[in-house]
Specification:
Radius of gyration: 79 Å
Strand content: 15-25%
Shape: elongated
Bound molecules: adenosine-5'-diphosphate
Helix content: 40-55%
Number of strands: 29
Structural class: alpha+beta
Distance between the termini: 172 Å
Length: 971
């Protein structure tokens, strides 16, 4: 390095010496001709030396040339000394200029070499750059230089690419629009052109590049070519692209969210959704499928890209029959890149028919089961990123939210509508107040109370709406309910359209979700009418009760005083009055009897002259109802009114007690305030007066009747006693007559017999027959008397009852029958016969009579057949009398003993009277008898506490029965 430098220095000095020598030679040759050129020659030598050499060679040339000038050309010639001033100045100038020039040259050379150095360093750097493709283009765009970066990025080696046109890096679409030439144009005109865009590598793959094209010009500004700096930005670009997609998707999500919140209806939201999804994902098809309730079918609710008529109609089956079905089944987003290669499920015809080959589907959630499926599909081959899936799921979530909200909004709306119609449908006032008592909500019925529109009332409290006293009362109640936290039912008074209304209000504390009382809910029912009706009902009840009390008093056969008292008590509980009275007039005596109450200080039970109460004529000429609103205002007053006025009475009501238009008395009422009696009061009083008049009249009549009845009773008792006495006397008489008759009859019989026995020879046949007839008549008479005696004995004798064996009695009676054998009668006794309670001889007599009749009253050509049997427990069969008897003696059971014959029978009209004494239906000739037999039967049985009767059909026979108490219980 040092050697090179010294040889370089040697060469420079040689140039200086040579140039100086040549300049001296030329100057010596031409100086005689042209002296002025001498300096120029030497100067040229200096310049040349410093140009080609360096500062040193310049200085050496300057030195050598100065010596030559001083020696050869400045006086003294051929001497190195310079004597003249001129010569000194000239030489000095020469030296100075030469040194300066060589210095300048040296500086220039240094600068040049530095430039060269830096240029070289730059070139090396450019060539070494890896990340950037940096190359030069000539004016036509052909590639002139190529660096490592360019080779790496574009894939060409320098050898391959130098001389080629740079348009080979552009993609087809850029080439089509002449973009490369256009870029050059802009760079040429504006100095540079920067862009980003797709470029093609040698292997045909594309990359995203950031490019700067710069025009290169020379110092004069003429265009020399272009430099191009290119950087590959694919990864960057992808990230950016990704980001942009994300942003777009996020924007779409936000947009949908906003739309969903805006309260748009569901169908519109779905339509918007499918459009937005298709746009955002850059897919042609989007669909919203709703899972129908039966869960085996999905309905295309909204869609884009599909044939429009399919929306709302097309269905897709679930399970592995469709992507959507599989999505539901799989319960996760499902991505399909090529439906034709799908193995997990069969693609739906909807997808196939539209040529959709790829897509994503996600679940739209619902409240178990899922609501449906959201799908986006494309007919292009493409891949889907996780972002795409997330985006679609995001959209589906918004939809789910919106659907849920729509459903709950609908439910809410429905329940609101229901509430509204319930609220408005009721006639009850319904309202909600806050803690301050301000109305928050109310129905029309409630608004009506205030006579104002609902919105005029909301926000106001009762003090702003109602009179202060009423509002204060309501407030007090509300405050109590909210403090205690307990519901109450209260009656509240409200003045409404001028009249007072009573409301029955149920008020409940109203709580927020945490249970704090934030107001109250009230339901108020207008019960004014009900109250009025209740009061009317109460009065009408009282009225009715009063009338009923009077009726009852009549039925209880109470006295007029009691009736009047009862009526007054009732009346004064319905009509407010201070004094009341019921007065009876007796116009015959001119007296008034106070039945109940008081009038003019006359009290019940007192009797006063009518005139002490009122002049007679005023009584008689009066209207049935007299109402004086104010006694004090009368110009003249009856004594009673005068008295009452002093007692403080003002109103007076008198209602006449009329019986068949005849005045029998008065019902009077006094009250201590004027005009006290309403028309209703008057109606009640008059109603009660009418009833009272009837009742009093009835009572009086009944009293009269009772008197008559008592008198009659008295008379009957007296007469009966007389009759009984007469009867007894008669019976005694009959008995004694019968008894007394027997003695003469005996003597007659005895004498007739004696006559027959002793004097029959003396008598002819007629005489003898007379005697026989006398005897027979006597016998008959004796029989009659005997019977009569028996009969009267029967009613007189004391009868001791015992338990009797009926079989034994019947047998005994049969044995006494005289005609039994003569008539060849057949008597059948049906066993068993019970024991009865009776009197032995009497019962035997009774049966003898019945049995002998049963044999007797049979035609002579017929064999009498008699049947006797007992019927246990049968009673009352003969009619009411029997029943009555039975119940009277029902302590013991009864039996009926029947005696049945096959005789002539008894006509119905005679069946009763044959039991009387001496009643016979036939002549003595056909059926002899005394007519006492059945009378004895009846009397005897009755004395034993029993009854008799007969059932008979004429010509067929009769059945007599006697009913007796039995000792044997029915088995
Ligand atoms: P007498 O048998 O003495 O005539 P009763 O008093 O026994 O008197 O009977 C009164 C009348 O009742 C009888 O005259 C008869 O006409 C009628 N009579 C009584 N028993 C029977 C009977 N079993 N069948 C038909 N008639 C009868």
């Amino acid at each position: 390095m040092h050697n090179a430098n010294s040889s370089w220095q040697l060469r420079n000095y040689s140039i200086a010496v040579l140039a100086s020598a040549i300049a001296l030679l030329f100057s010596l040759l031409i100086s005689p001709l042209l002296e002025s050129v001498t300096f120029s020659m030497f100067f040229t030598a200096v310049v040349l030396s410093s140009w080609y050499g360096d500062r040193g060679s310049g200085a050496l040339a300057t030195f050598l040339c100065s010596l030559a000038i001083a020696y050869f050309f400045l006086p003294p010639i051929y001497s190195l000394s310079v004597m003249t001033l001129d010569g000194t100045i000239r030489l000095g100038l020469f030296v100075s200029i030469s040194l300066l020039t060589s210095e300048l040259n040296a500086a220039r050379k240094r600068a040049e070499s530095k430039l060269q150095e830096s240029e070289n360093r730059y070139r090396e750097m450019v060539e070494a750059v890896q990340d950037y493709a940096i190359y030069r283009l000539d004016l036509q765009g052909r590639i002139v230089t190529w660096n490592t970066g360019a080779e790496r990025i574009e894939g060409y080696t320098a050898k391959e690419i130098l001389g080629e046109h740079f348009s080979c890096f552009y993609i087809a679409s850029d080439l089509e629009r002449g973009h490369p030439a256009h870029s050059l144009q802009i760079a040429a005109s504006q100095g540079k052109f920067a862009e980003e865009g797709w470029r093609v590598r040698k292997d045909g793959s594309q990359f995203w590049a950031s490019v700067l094209l710069t025009a290169i010009r020379d110092k004069q500004g003429s265009l020399l070519g272009f430099s191009k700096v290119l950087r590959e930005m694919t990864a960057h670009k992808q990230a950016e692209e990704e980001l942009r997609v994300r942003a777009r998707q996020q924007k779409a999500i936000a947009q949908l969210g906003q739309l969903a919140l805006s309260g748009i209806n569901l169908t519109a939201l779905m339509d918007e959704t499918v459009t937005l999804v298709a746009q955002t994902l850059n897919m042609e098809y989007c669909k919203i499928l709703e899972l129908l309730p039966q869960r085996d079918i999905l309905l295309l609710r909204a869609g884009i890209g599909w044939q429009p008529e399919l929306v709302g109609r097309a269905t897709v089956s679930t399970g592995t029959n469709s992507q959507a079905g599989y999505t539901l089944l799989f319960n996760q987003p499902v991505v399909v890149t090529d439906i034709n290669k799908e193995t997990r499920f069969r693609g739906s015809s909807l997808l196939f028919n539209h040529g959709a080959i790829g897509g994503i589907s996600v679940i739209i959630n619902g409240h178990n089961p899922p609501w449906g499926v959201l799908g986006a599909h494309t007919s292009r081959q493409r891949t889907f990123s996780q972002n795409d899936i997330n985006f679609l799921q995001g959209v589906a979530n918004i939809l789910a939210e919106a659907i849920d909200r729509s459903e709950s909004t609908q439910a809410l709306q429905e329940s609101y509508n229901l509430l509204q119609s319930v609220l408005e449908g009721t006639n009850d006032a319904v309202f909600v107040k806050d803690r301050q008592g301000r109305y928050q909500l109310l129905n029309t019925a409630a608004a009506r109370i205030f006579g104002n529109a609902k919105d005029q009332i909301v926000g106001k409290d009762d003090t702003q709406l109602l009179p202060i006293d009423i509002a204060a009362a309501i407030r007090e109640t509300d405050r109590r309910i909210m403090t205690r936290g307990r519901a109450e039912v209260v009656e509240e008074l409200v003045r409404e359209a001028g009249s007072l209304h009573t409301y029955l209000s149920t008020k409940d504390p109203y709580r927020d979700a945490r249970g704090n009382i934030i107001g109250l809910i009230g339901i108020a029912r207008d019960i004014t009418e009900r109250k009025r009706a209740e009061a009317a009902l109460f009065r009408s009840n009282q009225r009715l009760e009063t009338l009923q009390a009077i009726d009852r008093a009549i039925l209880r056969a109470e006295s007029p005083e009691q009736i009047a008292q009862a009526a007054l008590e009732r009346l004064t509980s319905v009509i407010t009055c201070q004094h009341a009275a019921v007065i009876l007039f007796n116009f015959n005596t001119g007296e008034a009897q106070i039945l109940a109450g008081q009038i003019a200080l006359n009290f019940a039970k007192s009797v006063v002259p009518i005139t002490a109460l009122t002049p007679l004529e005023t009584v008689k000429q009066r209207e049935p109802t007299l109402y004086i609103e104010d006694i004090a205002s009368l110009s003249s007053r009856t004594p009673a009114l005068e008295r009452q006025l002093q007692e403080g009475s003002r109103s007076f009501l008198a209602v006449a007690l009329l019986v068949e238009d005849n005045l029998i008395g008065d019902l009077t009422l006094f009250a201590n305030r004027p005009a006290a009696f309403s028309p209703e009061d008057q109606a009640i009083a008059s109603e009660i007066a009418t009833q009272l008049a009837i009742a009093i009249q009835q009572s009086r009549l009944r009293e009269q009747l009772q008197n008559y009845a008592n008198q009659l009773e008295q008379r009957v008792t007296e007469r009966t006693a007389a009759l009984v006495e007469a009867n007894n006397e008669l019976e005694a008489f009959g008995y004694s007559v019968s008894h007394d008759l027997r003695a003469p009859l005996r003597s007659m019989q005895g004498l007739a017999q004696a006559l027959q026995e002793d004097y029959s020879d003396l008598l002819d046949s007629d005489g003898q027959e007379y005697i026989e007839r006398i005897i027979a008549s006597a016998e008959r008479m004796d029989g009659l008397i005997q019977d009569l005696l028996n009969y009267s004995r029967l009613s007189r004798a004391e009868m001791k009852l015992r338990i009797l064996n009926l079989t034994e009695i019947v047998t005994e009676a049969t044995s006494q029958l005289e005609t039994l054998r003569s008539r060849q009668a057949q008597i059948t006794i049906e066993q068993p016969l019970p024991e009865v309670i009776g009197h032995r001889t009497t019962l035997i007599q009774v049966l003898v009579n019945l049995l002998s009749n049963a044999i007797k009253f049979v035609p002579t050509n017929k064999q009498p057949q008699v049947r006797v049997w007992a019927e246990v427990g049968r009673a009352g069969g003969a009619g009411e009398a029997g029943g009555e008897l039975l119940t009277q003696h029902s302590v013991l059971p009864r039996i009926r003993l029947w005696v049945e014959d096959n005789g002539i029978g008894i006509a119905p009209e005679h069946q009763e009277r044959i039991f009387n004494v001496f009643e016979r239906l036939h002549g003595e000739e056909s059926y002899p008898g005394s007519g006492i037999g059945l009378a004895i039967v009846r009397k005897g049985v009755e004395r034993m506490g029993g009854q008799v009767g007969v059932e008979s059909v004429i010509g067929q026979g009769s059945r007599f029965w006697i009913e007796l108490r039995t000792a044997t219980m029915k088995t």
